[in-house]
Amino acid sequence: MHPIARLDHAHVWHPFTQMRDWQKSEPIVVVDGHGAVLRDIHGKEYLDANASIWTNLHGHGHPTINAALRRQLGKIAHTSALGLANEPASRLAAELVKAATAAGPGAPRSPLPAPDLEKVFFSDNGSTAMEVALKLAYEFARRTKGQKSPRFLGLEGAYHGDTVGAVSLGHIDLFHKAYAGLLFKTDAVMAPYCYRCPFNRAKPERADAREYRRCGWECVGKVEQKLASANKRGTPYAGFVFEPLMQGAAGMIPQPAGWLKRVTDLAHDHGALLIADEVMTGFGRTGGCRAVAQGKKRAVEKSSPTPLFACQQEGVRPDFLALAKGLTGGYLPMAATLTTQDVFDAFLGEYEDFKTFFHGHSFTGNQLGAAAGLASLGLLGSPRSVTAREKLEATLRSMTASLWTSPHVGDVRQVGLVIGVELVRDWKKRTPFDLREKAGIRVCEAMGRRGVLTRPIGNVVVLMPPYCTTPAQAEHMVTALRESVDEVWG
C-alpha cells in the first residue's frame, strides 16, 4: 500500500462512508487531473463521471479559472466580509443576480407577482446556503406575517444538506433519523417519482417512466391538499422547499414537465415563499432545453440563450435561490443565497433595533472563490460552452439507450447533463434490490476497474460528467456502466 494511502487509513474520516469497509482495501489517491481525466498516485487514469461529487463544470485544471486564481493571488487571497467589501465578491453578486433574473426564453411566465432576486448572501457550501435561506424565511414570516412558529413544507426523499436546519428540511430516514432529537419538525408531501408512483397505472416499459406514465397528476393534488389543509388550520406554511426538475440525493428523481410550475404556483397562491435548492441543478447542469413528455414522444423546445438555472426552464421565480457546488467551477468551497428586496428590507432598522441578520461565516465572500466564480460564469456564457453542453447532453441521451438491454436496469432518467440509472432485480416487476446487497456500490466498483469513477445513490448509478467530456469519453462511461452491470450479475 502506498504511504499516502496508509496515512489516509490512519487519520482521515471520510463522509458518507462505512470506514470499516474503507479500510479493507487501498483507496484511490488522486494526485492529478486534466479535463475529465483524473490520475492516481500509481499513474492510473480514470474518467471523472460524477464531476467530483457534482461540482466540476468545465474540467480539471481549466486554464481560464487557473489564470483567474493566479491573478487574484497576486493581489490578496482573503479578507473578512464583516465590515469590509471586496471587488470579486461584489462583481460576482451582480453577475449572479443578472443570471438569476433572466427568464428562460419560451418558458411560461407566472401570472402571480414575483419580485426579482436582488440580494446575495455568500457562505461556504450547499448546506449553509440552505441554512441561510431557512433562517431568512423563518424570520421574514415572523416579522411580516405575524407567524409565531413558521412551518415549512418539503418533498418526500428531500435532502438539503447536513447542518441542523438543512437536515430538518430533509426527509431521508437513512440520513436523518439518527438526528431526530436535534431537529425541528417540517412536513413532507409526495414527490413525483414516476417510476415508483402508486398512481402510475402504466406497466413497465424500456423507457424513462415519465414518457409512458398514466396518471391524473395526483402528485400535484397531494401538494394542493397539504397547502389547503394548513391554511384551513390557520397555520399556513412559511415556505415551500424544493429541488427544481430533479431531486439529487433522493436517487436522481426527475419531475415530469409542468409539475414544478403547477406546484409552485399553488404554494405561492397559499402564501408560501418559494425556496429553490439549486445546489446540484444550477449552472447549466439541467441542460439547455425543456423535454416535454407527450405520450410516447418527446418534444424539445430549444432555449437561447441557455438559462443557467432549472427554475428558469419552467418560468418559476423563487423567493430564495440556494447555489453552491458548481459556483466556482468545482475549484473552491463557496455558496450563495439569493433573495428579494422585500426580504432584505425586513432586516433593516436602527442599530438599537437589533434587526440585523445575525448569521455569518469566516470565509464569506472570499476573494479567491469569487474570482473562480466569475471566471466560471464567463465560461458558461460563451458560445463554445453552450454548444459543448448541448452536444454532451445529446450524446449521453443517445448512448444510454444501450442500457435498456440489461434486465437489471429498471429506469434510465436524464435531465440535461444528469443521468440516474436505477438498478433492479427484475425490470418487468420493478423489483428493487435490498440496500444491504450494495448493488449500486458493486457496479461502481466494477466501473472503477474499467477506469470510470462515480458514486451511487443507493441502487441508482449516477452519471454527471464535466461539460468538457468528449463523445469518446462519454461512450467509455456508458460502456463501463453496461459492462459492469453484466459483470455483477453475470
Largest sheet: number of strands, sense, barrel closure: 7 strands, mixed
**What is the CATH homology-level superfamily of the largest domain?**
Type I PLP-dependent aspartate aminotransferase-like (Major domain)
CATH topology of the largest domain: Aspartate Aminotransferase, domain 2
Class by SSE composition:
alpha/beta
How many distinct folded domains? 2
* Rough outline: globular
The poorly predicted ranges are 105-112, 289-304
Mean pLDDT: 93
Beta-strand percentage?
15-25%
Care to describe what's here?
The chain has 490 residues and is of the alpha/beta class. The chain folds into 2 domains: 3-62 and 384-489, Aspartate Aminotransferase, domain 1 (Alpha-Beta Complex); 87-381, Type I PLP-dependent aspartate aminotransferase-like (Major domain) (Aspartate Aminotransferase, domain 2). 34% of the residues lie in helices and 18% in strands. It has helices spanning 3-11, 19-22, 51-54, 63-73, 87-101, 126-145, 164-169, 173-176, 209-212, 218-232, 259-269, 341-345, 367-380, 383-399, 439-449, 471-489, and strands spanning 30-34, 37-40, 45-48, 117-123, 151-155, 187-189, 237-242, 246-247, 253-254, 273-277, 289-294, 297-302, 320-323, 335-340, 409-415, 418-426, 431-432, 452-453, 460-463. The strands form 5 sheets. Strands 4-14-13-10-7-5-6 form a 7-stranded mixed beta sheet, sandwiched between helices. Helix 5 runs parallel beside helix 13 and helix 10 runs parallel beside helix 11 (259-269). The longest helix is centred in the N-terminal third of the chain and has 20 residues, at 126-145. It is globular.
